[in-house]
C-alpha cells in the first residue's frame, strides 16, 4: 500500500504541474483528494491491514495528502498570477498612440435661442418659472379672459386629452398660476413648449416653443412694455427694422404685435411677426386675485422658432426639427 501511495503522489504532482487552468486544477483536486478520489480508494483497503501496519500507512497517507494539497495551492497561485499578467498585457494602454476623435455634441439651435432669450430677461431682473404642459380649460382659457365662444377653444385649434384637460396652447397659463401664489410686484420669464393644431409649413408648426414675460406692479405703462421689447430685440438680434402693430388678445388691452424685417433671399424679404404683447387685462388680474385698481402690468409671448430663424437666417422652420448633422453643426453651442 505504501507503494500505491508513493505512485499516487508522483502521478498527482506531475499531473497538477501540467494543469493549464483553474478549472483543470479543480478537477484534479476532486480526482485525487475527493471523497470518491484515488486517495480514498487506496485508503479503503486499510481494513485488511494489521494493527501495527495501520499507523504507518496512515502517516504515509497524511504526508502524501499534505504534499498534494500543497502542490495544488502552489499551482493555483501560479495560475492566478499568470491570469493577472495576461489581463494586464491585454489591457495595456500605449500612451504614445494618438487619441481617437469623437465629435463634440452641440446644443440645438432652438434650445440655444431659448436660453439666450431667458438669460437676457434674467439679466433684467426677471425670475424664471415654469408650469404644466397638460392644462385645464380654466387656466388655459377662462382665467385669461377668453370668451366661451372664442375660436381658439375650438377643437380645430386645441389638442384635448381624454381626461378633459388639454395641451397648453400658450405659456400664458403660468401667469395665472404664479400670480395666485405671489404678491406683486413681480417680473417673471416663462420658457416652454406649446401645442396647437397648426398646419406645418415654412413658418408654422403644431409643436413649437414660446418665452413668456409678465411684469406687475404700480404705475406700469405701455411705454415700459415698448421700451422693454425694443431693448430685448436689439440685444438678441442687433439693430433690425421692426414695427409695432395694434392687435387683439383676450388677456391684454391694449394689445400689439411686433414684426421684424426678414431677409428671406438676396434682395427679397418680408415682415415676420415674432411676438404678441399688451397691458394685462383687468379681468386677468381679477382671476388671479389682484385688484386691477391698484396694480398694472404687461405681458408678452414670443415665438422661439421664428426668433431662431431671424438669428441664423433660416428660411424654413421645418429645418429646426430635422436630425441632419450637416445642418445642426452650423450653429454655435
Total E-strand runs? 9
How many domains comprise the coordinates? 2
Strand content: 15-25%
Q: On the 0-100 scale, what is the average pLDDT?
A: 88
The helix tally amounts to 11
- The ordered string of helix (H) and strand (E) elements is HHHHHEEHEHEEHEEEHEHH
Question: Under the CATH scheme, which class of the largest domain?
Answer: Alpha Beta
User: Strand order within the widest sheet?
Assistant: 1-4-5-9-8-7-6
Distance between the amino and carboxyl termini = 84 Å
**Sheet of most strands:** 7 strands, mixed
Range of helix content: 40-55%
CATH architecture term of the largest domain: 2-Layer Sandwich
Q: Which class of secondary structure composition applies to the elements?
A: alpha+beta
Work out the radius of gyration: 41 Å
Q: State the shape.
A: elongated
CATH superfamily grouping of the largest domain: Bira Bifunctional Protein, Domain 2
The CATH topology label of the largest domain is: BirA Bifunctional Protein, domain 2
Low-pLDDT ranges: none
